[in-house]
Amino acid sequence: MWAQSYQKRLALVVGNSNYEHGGSLPNPVNDAKAIAVALQSVGFEVMSYENVTQKELKMAINAFGQKLKGYEVGVFYYAGHGIQNKGMNYMIPVEADLQTEAQVEFDCVAADRVLAYMDAAQVKVNVIIMDACRNNPFERSWHRSANGNGLAMMNAPTGSLIAYATAPGRVASDGTGSNGLYTSALLKYLGDPKLTIEQVFKKVRTEVTEKSMGAQVPWETTSLTGDDFYFATGNINKGAILKNEVLANNSEVKKVNNNRSANDVSQQSRDKAKSILDEGHIAYGEKNYARAITLYTDAIQVNPNYDEGYYWRASAYYALEKNKESIPDYSRAIELNPNNEQAYYYRALTNYNLGAFEEALSDFNNAIELNPDVASMSYWRGETKYKLENYEEAIIDYTNSIELNKNDGYSYGGRATSYYMLRKYKEAKIDYNKAIELLPNEATNFKYWRGICNYNLDLTQEALNDFLSYLEKNPIDAYILLMAAHSHYVLKDYEQAVRYYTRAINVQSDNAEAYYWRGNSYLNLNKKSEAKRDVEKSISLDPGNETYINFKRDFLN
Question: Which of 161, 246, 311, 550 is the least crowded, having the fewest Cβ atoms under 10 Å away?
Answer without folding.
Answer: 550
